[in-house]
C-alpha cells in the first residue's frame, strides 16, 4: 500500500469505521476542517447530500445501484432522442409528418430535443472551462 493509499485508508477508518459514524459527526468534522484531507471528497458529498441514506458503508452498494437506475429512468424519460420514443409507439400512433427531425411543425418533439441539445452543449463548455 502506498503512502497516499495508506492515508486514504486511515481517513476512511477514522470517519466511517465502527458504529460511531453518523451524519452529525461528519458535519461536525467538516465544520472543524478535518474532512477531505485525502481523495475521498466525493464520498463525503454523497453522504451530505443524502445520496447515501445512511453513513454506514455497508448500505451504499444497494443505494448506488438504486440511484443509478433512477438516473437511467430520468434520462430515458427526459433526454433520450425522440427516435427512441418512436420505436416504442405502434405504427398507428405515429405521425411521421410531424414527428420527423426535418419537420418545421410546432408540435415536433425533435424541435425540443435539438434545443435541449444546444443548451447541454453550452453547459458542457462552461463546465469544461471551470476545470
Provide a quick synopsis of the model.
With 131 residues, the protein is mostly helical. Helix content is 60%, strand content 0%.
Task: Describe the overall structure.
With 131 residues, this protein is mainly alpha-helical. It folds into two domains: 1-78, no CATH class; 93-131. It has six helices and no strands. It has helices at residues 3-16, 23-31, 41-48, 60-78, 82-88, 109-130. The radius of gyration is 23 Å and the shape is elongated. 3% of the residues are buried. The mean pLDDT is 77.
Radius of gyration: 23 Å
Largest sheet: none
Uncertain spans: none
**Could you tell me the strand content as a percent range?**
under 5%
- N-to-C SSE string, H for helix and E for strand: HHHHHH
Taking the alpha carbons of the first and last residues, their distance comes to 30 Å
Structural domains: how many:
2
Annotation keywords:
single chain, 131 residues, 60% helix
